[in-house]
Design a protein that fits this description.
Elements: H1 3-10, H2 15-32, H3 34-48, H4 54-76, H5 79-83, E1 86-90, H6 93-100, E2 105-108, H7 115-125, E3 128-132, H8 141-148, E4 153-157, H9 160-171, E5 175-178, E6 189-194, E7 197-202, H10 204-208, E8 215-223, E9 230-235, H11 245-262
Parallel strand pairs: 1-9, 2-5, 2-8, 3-4, 3-5
Antiparallel strand pairs: 6-7, 8-9
Length: 287
């Protein structure tokens, strides 16, 4: 059975069923993979500044599994049916105020909770151009593109042409969206602290925040227990994103940290946030 067929079959299941399957798969992965357990525990320890309990580690593994298994539902279910699982939105009045004045918004959504549902919801209400990186599995790309390019969402490739599209959207008073904690390729980022450890961090979000009149808004989609759906959180940064490029990059990392600490078990700790991209020098070393 091809991956596309597996996704289509899974998409027919209910969200509670998919979350149960995902939690089981997440725990199985945690139990079978020593490297995954080590990374999850080490990264979570950095964030919460203590050794996480077994319950917290198991919960984080379950949430990572849910993230994978909910993708077929979010991408392939009818648009209105998928969006019906957004049961609460906290803070959208921020977006209404900006829309009233045609204020350009840079929407930042980290790897926290269900970030796919966040983009889908934004695109159901306002036009958004979202940065897009093709998946490693080429056979998954048609499903991913079809699932993301719905409503008022336009995708921009993660290259120079895509950056120009994001800037164009901002200049038109629209929304540009991306994941600020995605590890960039060599030359597209800089080393900046993330929970007290150097992480190769994209500079694109910081550069876009310098565009005239742009306002930064942070989003995350809280996954409710028992497959009950999602609560979307919308908030402005706790501190101004200003200063030099380095200062802006660090400020964005601090904002992501604040969001993560609101619900640490739903952050994707298995993602290798501290990896050194091919060709990049380790932190503290210069060419």
């Amino acid at each position: 059975m091809t991956l596309q067929k597996i996704f289509r079959w899974l998409s027919r299941l209910s969200l509670p069923t998919l979350h149960r399957l995902g939690a089981t798969a997440g725990l199985a992965t945690y139990g079978l993979s020593k490297s995954y357990r080590r990374r999850l525990r080490a990264n979570m320890t950095l964030a919460i500044q203590r050794a996480p309990s077994s319950h917290e580690l198991h919960a984080a593994a379950c949430e990572a599994g849910k993230l994978l298994f909910e993708l077929p539902y979010v991408w392939l279910r009818p648009y209105a049916q998928m969006l019906s699982h957004v049961v609460e939105v906290e803070g959208w009045e921020v977006m209404d105020a900006f829309a009233a004045n045609a204020t350009p918004v840079l929407a930042l959504t980290p790897h926290l909770g269900c970030f796919e549902i966040v983009a889908a919801y934004i695109g159901s209400r306002v036009p958004m151009t979202a940065l897009y990186r093709p998946p490693k599995r080429a056979d998954l790309e048609p499903i991913m593109r079809a699932g993301r390019e719905r409503g008022l969402i336009k995708l921009a490739p993660a290259d120079l042409s895509g950056v120009k599209r994001l800037l164009r959207a901002l200049r038109q008073g629209e929304i540009a969206g991306l994941l600020p904690d995605q590890v960039p390729g060599n030359g597209e980022g800089m080393w900046s602290g993330f929970f007290g450890k150097p992480a190769y961090t994209m500079t694109l979000a910081a550069r876009l925040s310098e565009a005239e009149g742009v306002r930064v808004v942070l989003f995350w989609g809280e996954r409710l227990s028992g497959g009950r759906g999602y609560r979307i959180h919308v908030c402005e940064p706790a501190e101004a994103i200003t200063g030099s490029l380095e200062q802006r990059v660090q400020a964005i990392n601090r904002e992501v940290e604040r969001l993560v600490l609101r619900c640490p078990t739903q952050y994707l700790w298995g993602y290798n946030r501290y990896k050194i991209p091919a060709g990049a020098l380790p932190p503290g070393r210069s060419a």
